Structure formats: structure tokens, C-alpha cells
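Researcher: I've been going back and forth with a colleague about how LysR family transcriptional regulator might be arranged in three dimensions. Neither of us has a model we trust, so I'd like an independent prediction. The organism is Stutzerimonas zhaodongensis, in case that matters for your notes. Sequence below.
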Amino acid sequence: MTLRMPPLYALRAFEVAARFGSFTQAAESLCITQSAVSRHVKTLEEHLGCPLFERRGSRLALTDTGRMLAQELKVGFRTIENACIAVNRQRDALRLKAPSTLTMRWLLGALDDFHLSHPQDRVQLTSAWMDLDAVDFHNEPFDCAILLGNAGFPADWHRVKLFDEWLVPVCVPDYQGGPPWTAARLCEAELIHPSRDCRDWRRWLQRVGLVDAVAWQQGKLFDTLELGISAAAQGHGISIGDLALVDAELQKGSLMLPFSQAVRSGDSYYLVWPATGETPMTLTRMKDYLLQHLPDIDSRGVALLD
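Model: Here is an independent structure prediction for LysR family transcriptional regulator. You can compare it with whatever you and your colleague have in mind.
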């Protein structure tokens, strides 16, 4: 049998009165009269069949039951308040899903600058780990997404290519004695794989003609490009990175390129959104801004092998 709940207004009046220890202050906080607070608390006590306050001279004190109820209601009303805040924050905001490494290494900064330039626009970003980037616009709460792929997207999606993925080995400058690097030294190095299927090292080694010389199936396995780059930056081996997403470390000198060839993986980062309905203006402005502020790879002096 479902328990008949007390009136919500009575619960709220009691919770505020318990927090302040005063009907007068509770009334001021709720913008009602003191007598109204008193009536609401009396209604709740009658409903529960027990006293919640006791008078100690001119001061109100909670009974043991009142204290327990006040603690639980405080948590409950905070949960309700947080839910309402979350809805208000997302209302009228463009909801964007993006992979975690791209978010940390480029997108967060780009969106911060976008918001400064377009204060009227709000983008609600959700960063997600995805082994294979995907979004389900029918069942996920997103208006658009940035995905790494080869443009094999559904026909009812709009898509705009942002930039290509260029695979390049990275390591700390003094790893195994530092440069110069040769194919023979690479054979002795500890490989770091940013994916469990080792696909990125295999792609790079195939294109530069070293796939048969290097035991690319061996090495440390990680789930994300971010973790692989972080492991390399701590000196644990040589990782494959995305040339566009390691620029900060290359500029600081915390990472270096042991080889000057970057290999196109065949995938690119795309901004995608459903083709149904009118494209939101915030999405259009964000798209244009991102296209004007893409990562710069031309200044690295690396041979780009398509």
C-alpha cells in the first residue's frame, strides 16, 4: 500500500523552521507569515501523529523525531534544488558530446574562448570516453557531437570536418639517451599504445615501412590517447599521439618527436548534428568559430604522409 505523503508545503515549512530554529526567520525566508509557518508545522505533526518541536522557554527545540526528519528533508530538498538548477542551466543551451582526449587537449579551451566572444550563447559540454566514437541522437540528450571517424555517418546527419588525425610518435626528450633516433633504436624502445588493439602504432609503422621490423604488438596498453600521452610524458616509453593534440607539450619541451614523419590515420574529427529541423543559431556560430580556431600543425616542420 502506498504511504500517503504529507503536504509538500508543510514539509518545506518545517525544514526551514528546523534549520533556523525559529518560526519568525522561517517565515521571512519563505515570504509567508509566522502564523502560516506555525499552521504548516501543526499540519505536519497531525499527519505524522507526533510532535516535531518542543518549547524551551522562548526558544524552539527539535524533538528526536523532528531532528531525524529535518536531517532527511535537508538532503531531499537539496536534491530537488540541484535537479532544478541542472534543468535551468541546460535550458536553451546547446548540448554537445565530445571525446575525452579532444576535450582536454583542444575543445575546452576553444569553447572557453567561444563563450567570451559570444556571451549570449551557451554550450553544455559532455566529455565521454568512447573506444569508437558514437552518438545516438534519438536516445542521448545531445543536439550535436564531435566524433572521430571516416565520415561514414548516417544519411540524416549534417557533418562538417574540423581537422584530420595525424599520428606521430612522442616521448620525453631524454628518453633512452635522447636523439638522434633510428629504426634500430625504435625496435628496442617500449611502445605505449593508446588503444588496446594497437591500431595506431600499426598504422604509423606500416606507412613508414617498419611494420615488419618492430614488434608493435608488444608494449603497454591504455584506453585513451590522453593516457598514452601522459605515460610518455612521464618517461615510460614512446606513445603514438595526434600531432594536433600534443602541440602544448611540444612547445613546452616536455615531449619531443623522435621521428619527423606524421601519418594520416584515415580518420578526422567531425562536428555532426541531426538534419531534422532548423539548425540552432548557437550551433552555427560555434561551428564557424571552431573552424576559424583549429589546431595548427603546419608549424611543426613534420613530413605529413597521407
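Researcher: What would you highlight for our discussion?
Model: I'd start with this: The radius of gyration is 29 Å. After that, consider the following. The chain has a mean pLDDT of 91.
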